[in-house]
């Protein structure tokens, strides 16, 4: 590189360090006029574009640097991060694989690749990547936290707790790790220790709704009406990639099929149907043959993204069940599997559902069963609500819904134990 080019490059680097991004961009471009195939300069320009909120221009220069022979590995890494932000996790994995082939001890690449594998629903590959990440970058708190999440998915609660603890040792104010450790300890029945970590989250992030809710699930205060939408969204955004494998294979989850079997005798053709809390759309294939219009709604955008891959729904909408329902037409059927467990007081949901059902329309749903009929509902340390048969019957009657079907059922497994539930079908407008 010519002396004047070296001088301009130093000026570019100084401007970048000082946050004079327009000056840095101009100088890097001037250097590239002389050395257009300089991977490090292309990568530096790409980071300036990112800092200037120009991701498309950043992607272009990262792609050029990544296509060089040999490729610039820093640009490959940055391009991988961009692809993940765009939702192209498979493309990101290809780039990270190329990086670790050349630099097998690149902990950040292993960590990001683990996240990408989780997103595409390959938890075994994810946990393998996170293990390499903490082996090669043992001081990376984020990688330890991610390893803990992956271990939780494999029900390795003791291991997960140790990983979260390691993340906290490295970064004492790591709120997510404290929260995750609290949940993990709660699963292990160590409620006092879990409480300590939720309180730590509230020290770091005062007013955190999720931490406060989990404290309430331990009986520390009055039972709230529902889990915070932000908390439920976080749970399902985090597990969207592995959701179906975990539920169907590990928890023997059959509620969508069992609920459909209960409502099936009452179905006709050309129905307008709402899948309330559709998740990844596990039940949608059962209802599609009866639907003129099938709409899925869920609080989790990432779950909806997975549902869209099935190409079954006519429309998918990000939706909080407790918000105002503003659908353009009434429904002939509303069905909801394993959703009401995040709500204690079902009054507003049943009111909205009844108001949005056509006369003679039906609602089919599941709840966890609370054996004590003297109580309406109860929040358990699992962070889920159970409802009594009496409460459900009263709620339906109050909103003009007449029970058609109702059975006890095992709705899934939790820590190897069967979870008992109720499956209900009710109709609007019958006397």
Automatic annotation (TrEMBL):
PANTHER family the record matches: PROTEIN O-MANNOSYL-TRANSFERASE TMTC2
Q: What is this protein called?
A: Uncharacterized protein
List the InterPro entries hit by this protein, alphabetically: SAM-dependent_MTases_sf, TMTC_O-mannosyltransferase, TPR-like_helical_dom_sf, TPR_rpt
Gene Ontology molecular functions: mannosyltransferase activity
Q: Which organism is it from?
A: Desulfosarcina widdelii
In terms of superkingdom, the source organism counts as Bacteria
Keywords from the UniProt entry: TPR repeat
The residue intervals holding the TPR repeats read 39-72, 107-140, 141-174, 175-208
One of its GO biological process terms is: protein O-linked glycosylation via mannose
């Amino acid at each position: 590189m010519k002396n004047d080019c070296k001088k301009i490059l130093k000026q570019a680097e100084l401007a970048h360090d000082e946050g004079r991004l327009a000056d840095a961009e101009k100088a890097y471009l001037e250097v590239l006029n002389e050395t257009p195939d300089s991977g490090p300069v292309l990568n530096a320009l790409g980071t300036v574009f990112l800092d200037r909120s120009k991701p498309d221009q950043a992607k272009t220069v990262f792609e050029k640097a990544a296509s060089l022979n040999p490729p610039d590995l820093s640009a490959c890494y940055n391009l991988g991060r961009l692809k993940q932000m765009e939702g192209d996790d498979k493309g990101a994995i290809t780039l990270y694989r190329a990086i670790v082939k050349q630099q097998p001890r690149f902990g950040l690449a292993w960590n990001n690749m683990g996240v990408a594998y989780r997103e595409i629903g390959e938890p075994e590959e994810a946990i393998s990547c996170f293990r390499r990440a903490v082996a090669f970058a043992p001081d990376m708190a984020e990688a330890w936290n991610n390893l803990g999440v992956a271990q939780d998915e494999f029900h390795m609660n003791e291991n997960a707790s140790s990983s979260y603890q390691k993340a906290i040792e490295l970064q004492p104010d790591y709120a997510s790790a404290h929260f995750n450790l609290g949940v993990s300890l709660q699963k292990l029945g160590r409620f006092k220790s879990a409480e300590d970590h939720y309180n730590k989250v509230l020290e770091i992030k005062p007013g955190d709704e999720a931490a406060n809710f989990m404290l309430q699930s331990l009986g520390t205060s009055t039972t709230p009406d529902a889990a915070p939408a932000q908390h439920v969204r976080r749970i399902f955004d985090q597990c969207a990639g592995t959701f179906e494998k975990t539920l169907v294979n590990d928890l023997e989850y059959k509620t969508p099929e069992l609920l459909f079997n209960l409502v099936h005798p009452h179905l006709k053709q050309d129905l307008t149907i709402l899948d309330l809390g559709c998740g990844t759309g596990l039940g949608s294939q059962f209802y599609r043959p009866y639907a003129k219009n099938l709409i899925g709604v869920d609080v989790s955008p990432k779950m909806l993204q997975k549902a869209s891959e099935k190409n079954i729904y006519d429309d998918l909408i990000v939706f909080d069940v407790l918000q105002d329902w503003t659908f353009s037409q009434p429904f002939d059927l509303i069905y909801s599997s394993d959703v009401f467990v995040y709500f204690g007081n079902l009054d507003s949901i049943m009111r909205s559902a009844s108001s949005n059902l056509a006369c003679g329309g039906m609602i089919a749903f599941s709840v966890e069963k609370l054996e004590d009929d003297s109580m309406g509902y109860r929040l358990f340390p699992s962070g889920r609500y159970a409802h009594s048969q009496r409460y459900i019957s009263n709620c339906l009657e109050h909103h003009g819904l007449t029970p058609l079907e109702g059975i006890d059922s095992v709705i899934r497994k939790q820590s190897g134990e069967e979870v008992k539930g109720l499956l209900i079908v009710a109709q609007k407008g019958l006397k």
